[in-house]
Structure formats: structure tokens, C-alpha cells
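Record type: monomer structure entry
Structure origin: computed from sequence
Chain ID: A
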Amino acid sequence: MANHRLQSLSEELHPPLTQHEASVESDRCYFCFDAPCITACPTGIDIPLFIRQIKADNPTGAAKTIFDENILGGMCARVCPTETLCEQACVRNTQEEKPVRIGELQRFATDTLMDANTQPYEREASTGKTVAVVGAGPAGLSCAHRLALQGHAVTIFEAHSKPGGLNEFGIAAYKTVDNFAQREVNYVLSIGGIDVEYEKPLGPSLSLDDLKNQFDAVFLGMGLGNTNTLDVPGHDVGGVHDAVEFIAQLRQADNPQSLDVGNDVVVIGGGMTAIDAAVQSKLLGADDVTVVYRRDQDSMNASPFEQQVAQTHGVLLKTHWQPSQIIANNGKVAGVEFEKTAVQNGTLQGTGEKRVFTCDRVLLAIGQQFEANDTLNGLDLENRRIKVDENGRTSDAKIWAGGDCVAGGDDLTVSAVQAGKVAALSIHTQLSA
């Protein structure tokens, strides 16, 4: 088992490849016809082509190939679960061989172009059309860039004081060091034709009707605004925190080492956020960190690689336990009582067996939800998210949507980028008619 041990938040999970390493790794690609890795990539990057370009000592050309399909290819190279996407599909991924390191090659190419501060695109002549984009996260940035490239004037309305969305506020610090999220945003915006207005959430002062009246089209890419709550006794005692907020706090802190992360930490949940919060707690000095999940380990949304990263940092993974109450001492968390679970008659049920995990801090990573409220102005919903067609069109002819706010969103940066791109192509088609 490979060791993915990190010593601090400033150390990278995957150090960048050197030019020699990239050349050697690119030589491993078979450059398959009808390559399965392309199909496995949500944005459809021509992976064999960009690897061939690296092999031919043309990393900037490789980056252009990547950016043509995924303008946030630099971040995706850092955070995509490649082990379950393109690298899983690689024909070299056998018992005898490891897959081509596609993600690391992608980073090598995109970093080369971005470090050169070279813009590979030139905007088309102005069309005179205007588009409003709500949300400066992956979906919104992808949509805005594609539309700006085609000559439309785009205004992004962002609820936070800085752009990036999930990439800036929701991804572990050790996955995106050196302020990369903001550097990438600046690179995307450098195409021109995109204005960003901050602290402008969709609401009473910024309604959909206003946007429809002022712009020729609207794209909604707000992401997930709310987190699920833990409905057990004691959930509101001191020391119980939301894991998403914890990660955002770390990402925005000038000195993360000064933050109080607790000594004995229990993280409730089984997704990427749970693993990120657990590993970061360890890196910041917590003595004991335990991730507790209600199902088995194979059912965790966190990939096997992410689970391995956690375990190499000394994080314990406890499965088949669901929280029943938070135990407090003088108003602060002292432990969590869990009930053992088992699958009975095809459903997960409590067995009645109880156990207390002592701790002085609890991080809740039990999922996020979209806030479907009156600001959506009657748009059709599905499973409490915005309903769209295959082109990202909503039930309103002037409004498109994409990313985690739509039905079927899967909380992946790369999928949000694709949704923004698809919607932009549809918007451009309509505006050009």
C-alpha cells in the first residue's frame, strides 16, 4: 500500500511531476482508439491526444486540448477522483500494472501554460448579447468563460466576497495549496468580457425577474447552500460543528495552525468532506480522529484512495454505527452515543447495541442540500432541486441551470464544469438564432 502521509496543510497530496517524470509517464499511454478514458471523463477531454502532446514536448498544446473541454482543468487535475474515473478506465489498470497517471499529467500540462501566464484564447467579436450567471463556482465560471469566448458579455453575481465556490470554500487545503483556486479563477477571467459582482446572492435585492429583464439569458449555478442537520438530542451543544464550515474556515484563515481543532475528534459521515475534515484535523494537531459512518466501508462516498489517505494519517474508520445522542458536560460535547446498525430485510436498521465515543469536538459531514425557495420564481423542481433538460434548460425559456443545484448533481467539480459548458453552448445557440 502506497504511503500518502502529509506533514502539514501546505504539503501537497500529489507533488507535481517534473518534466522528465511527465515524459516517462506519457510514454506509458497506448493512445487507444476509442479510448475508454475519454468516455470516463465527465468533460470528455481527449486524453490520449493531450498525453501524446506531452510526449512530443508540447505541454502548452496539451493544456489547450484540456482547456477546450474543461477550463478548470488545473483544479480538476488536483481534486478529481481520477481513480474512479479516467484512471479506473485506463487499459493499463490491471492486476499487473498501474493505470497511466492521467491526473498528474493533466496538472503538468495546465500548470505549464498557466505559469507562463499565456492566454490560449481570443474572444470573438461582441455579439451585443448579455448573460447573467448566478454563482462564481465551477459551473458558473465554466459557463461564463464559454459565453465570453463566443463574444457575449457576462456578469457573474456571487454571494461570497470572493469567487471559486466549492473550489475555494469546500476542498481540503492540502489538495489545493498556494492559493491555486484564486489563481485559476484569475486565469479564467483574464479572457475578458466577464464582470463579477460580489456579495450579491439571489434574493429580495436580486430577483430572477430582475435578471430576466436586464439580461438576454440567465444561468443559475449556486451550488448547495445548506447543510443537513443532525436530529438527535444534544446536537446544539458547544463543540459540535459543521464540517463544510470547518473546511471553509481553514481555507480562509491566515494562520490555520492557530485554530482550535480539539484533541479527540469524531467526524460523522462517509463522504469526501468527512475525510477532508478528518485529515485536516490530524494535520492541525488533533490527537485522535475517528470517522464514524452508518453503513459499511464499501458504501462510503469517499473513494478507496481517500480512505487510504485518512488511514495513513492515523484516522480511524468506524462503520455500522449511527448517532443517537450527543453527550454534553457543562454545555460542551464530551462524547457521542452511537447505535450499531445492520442491514435487515434490505434496509439499514439499528440493532439496539449502544456505544459511546468520547470526544471534545464533533464535525458533521452528513451531506448538503439545495435551498429550494421562493427566489426560484416557480421553476420546476425535481427531488427539491432545479429540473433541467439535457441542455441545462429549466422550465423558464430564458433560464438555464447546472451544477449541484440541479436534479442529478453529484458534488464533483468536473461534473459542474461540464454542466456549465453544456448550458453555455445551448445559451449561445439560442442567442445566435
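Annotation 1: The mean pLDDT is 94.
Annotation 2: The chain has three domains: 19-115, 130-225+370-432, 227-368.
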